[in-house]
Design goal:
Strand content: under 5%
Shape: elongated
CATH class of the largest domain: Mainly Alpha
Oligomer: single chain
Number of helices: 14
Structural class: mainly alpha
Strand order of the largest sheet: 1-2
Distance between the termini: 38 Å
Radius of gyration: 22 Å
Amino acid sequence: MKCRILVAASLFSLVLGAATSAMAQESNAVTRWVEHMLDAVRDQNIGTGGAGRLYAMTTIAMYDAVNGMDRRTPEVLQPNRGHALVPPDGAPNPLLANRGLAAAVAAYTVLSELVPEQSAKLDQALMQEIANSKLPGIRLWRSLLWGGFVGNQVLSVRANDGSQGAEILSASSDAGRFRNDWDGQLRNMLPFGISDPSEFISPDGPPARTSNEYALAVYRSVLFGAPDGNPEHDALAQFWRFPSNSVRETGGWFPAALEVARQQGTTASVSDTARLFALLGMAIADSVIVVWNEKALHLTWRPVTAIRRANEDGNPLTDAFWDPDFVSRFGQVGGSPEWTSGQANFAGAGAGVLSGFYCRDDIAFSFNAGNTAEPRSYTSFSEARREAVFSRILQGNHFEFTLNRSEQTGSAMANEIIRSRLTRMNPIPGVSEACSQF
């Protein structure tokens, strides 16, 4: 592994060539670097699971940089406040450091290591951050040193976290089985927030292909998963679709969280913003672990294949749906085994983190998912969650029973994380004291 030592002198030299520009009031360093990490995934075309790990590491680095300073402020110190990854007593001393700049440097350090091809763009973003901070010498140096230390610590902690290498699971031509080779290595990744991934893995798996439940799910895939000329179906399916050079399914809830954080005034506090995105990053990355485990355990075929080979599934109820030429709405089959659904699990986790963080579900918001689709508006987190889940039926990518199970799992994971990790020191503005203890 190459050296990741952050040299303060080289960072300081970036200031000399940086230009100052106005920062949007509703943004802070955390939201800006969430945007940078999303751009890095788009630009580098990182895969769904790898993007989830990157999102978690970047947001955790920002949280730990901010929280390491918060813990050393006597008037706000509480004993139950914990770090996401980094031990709170690491050196150098963050006293006098700036929260926003330290968070930016921590994110920069992680992203520069994970996506070195984007170094020039990341360097420019950090130069702008440093210039706009306008910090005097000692505060600037402390911010650079502390942020770099935390970023490197996150990289060190995750250097051998089980995600390295590959675990290729072989294709099968058997009825009911996934027909392509698939890399299941991320099922071995150490969790970020949940205690035990096995608690969220179904012992039974999907219903039998000979069951009525399976036949009904095949029917609904035929009914909704093919091109139907319905513009609303097309719009909804496209909005929650994350092809190459997008933020991927693991990134779909970050643009939503950005909009909600700005709308709700969370961005007025760097600490609150860092906590929100670290919780979201952990929940999404841990969803990858659980989903990849389920996929590797069962290696089931996708609806397109099931419909094209319905005459082979041993279920007479699906014979009427057999169509060897069936094509899904966007012509895709799916690049991983069907059980379970990442999209639905991420939806349960994303909506669960947002509703748990704000202690309410009925927050109206609009956002752009960053995948060329038109923005959509929602009256609640649960409405967005339901649409994200239903989109996978409209896309022809998943069976209904899989989506239901995955959504419930994601919600349960978010509930564990938000109740047990990164507890707040102070109430969120406009939220009750009891609620803030989630």
